[in-house]
Amino acid sequence: MPTLLQVSTIAQTIQLSLAPVFMLAAIGQILNVLAGRLARVIDRARVLEERVIAESGRDQQRDIWELKLLDERMSIINAALFLAVLSAVMACIVIAMLFVANIARLHIGTGIAFCFIVAVTLLTCCLAAFIPAVERRALQIVVALACLVPLSVGGWSVARGPGFLGHPPVIPTDLDSHFRYISGIFFAVGIAFATCIPGIERKGPRFRLLGALVVAGGLSRIVSLLAVGAPSAGHVFGFAMELGAVPLLMLWQWRLEKRFRA
């Protein structure tokens, strides 16, 4: 019976250790990604270092700027690697403590929980440290998704007119013309924002001008809100995008532009 009891205890401990083991597997994948990215950055830096020596003028300045950017990326990746390794070490300590606690009958549950919390916190910090390295791509994805709103709604409104809004069967010609005109502008704004996606860190003036136009349209909705009351849910969503999401995207793009110019 003692042997069977020990086997069951070990089996239970193995089951308890599955969570940190899965966490270790995830950290291993993250380490592979970070190491591969670091290798590509180093290879690119070596190529640029050779080119800088042979070049002069604007080409040399551009390559020096890119070298500074690559150096920043290497620092970020190294920090993320360090935190990921620490998290993996803490996860291993958690697994070891689980077995020691069961074998030696130690009451160290609080210590095990604390070590696991530290491991998860370090992993979170690792992912957070890597955010600046992918910030440009993240902003491009968010802007691309935001562009779907004016492109889809504007295109649909130009094609269908104001009839889908629930107006009477007979729609005044001037209302139809004005509605399609505004919808066309809305569609064009979506296209203009989409042109900012490639090289978004260099499109600051254009991006902020378009954002200011959208914010001005959102402020105009306040007049309608005060005059006739709250609109439908779709227009409330647009109002939130114009006065909430767009200013945040403008600040994000400005921050990214500032970091790339530093």
TrEMBL record:
Keywords: Membrane, Transmembrane, Transmembrane helix. The chain crosses the membrane at residues 12-34, 76-100, 106-131, 138-159, 179-197, 209-230, 236-254. Pfam families: DUF2721 (PF11026), DUF4345 (PF14248). The keyword Transmembrane applies. The keyword Phosphoprotein does not apply. This is DUF4345 domain-containing protein.
